[in-house]
Fold:
Amino acid sequence: MKKDEVVRRRNLKHGDLEAMDMVKMADGSELEVPIYDRNWLKGSHCARFARTVAGYTSGKDYEPSDAWNMRHKHNTVMVYNFEKQVERGEIEPGDLVGIRRPFSNYRNRVDSTGEKAAYTHMTVFLGEDARGDLRFAEQVGENSGTTTLSSIRMRLGRPVEVIKALRDAA
Structure:
């Protein structure tokens, strides 16, 4: 299967929405993933993008926060060890994933508890695509779109934590 058979982009301009990535999922369905206007994203707001896509694609609701503080929000429960969540099949579409980026400009941040941030980047898990790859939506700088787990590991760093919403969006 060619890459363009798994993900294709439908361009549109509707308010803050710029385009939709159409991802062919393992069950044969197509998942629409919103891609937002760069003016709405305004630079490094990966957590805002991840929260918004989680709400749009899976109905999960997360409180606003920086990536490194998302684990401390009242409507979330953090689940340690990303790898074990994947092995056990416990990661679900709409779960947020914290990524440790060794060369991030934010790597020396402290979180809201005063501890060094466990991670500085956030993505949202979309599910398994038609190729069997784990698919995520992310924003890096002003660029956003969908990507695979292997691409995240190669370009950004190591996924370390899964964060689950305790409630769905209203």
